[in-house]
Amino acid sequence: MTHWAMKCEPECYSIHDLQRESPAIWEGCRNYQVRNWMRDVMAVGDLALFCNSNSKPSGPAGVMRVVRAAYPDPTQFDPKSMYYDPKSSREMPRWYAPEVEFVCAFDEVLPIGDLKKMPELEGMFYLKKGLMFSVVPIEQREFEIVLGLAGVDLGRMSAE
User: Hey, where are the domains in the chain?
Assistant: First the structure.
């Protein structure tokens, strides 16, 4: 199992939106590296931190689980969508999206600034300065540390 940090602006889509709509497609990612991770590495059952971005505070807000492997993102074919890509075709899609389900919301968002101060998270890819990827893999150890900070029991979550 791979673990992930997946960022979204809460004004666009929040952990509570996912809770209401679960399961939901994680649509609109338009970066080739992110596409490759979602298409080639992400698997059903993987757990991800739902991370608020461009908000106060930014940081992990909850956990979600991949419930459907990435498939061609339908928004790329819809001219009315903000994620429309006229160079993509159904025969040769460019963009992929998994489906995720709500697992839990944290009592509070864990501020990214606080996480960056923790020596045990020093190498965490999600915390790298200037990171522009909306989806990144994270190590299980890092995932467990974040869950511990949020007061979430990984054993209980894995059994659900």
Answer: 3-159
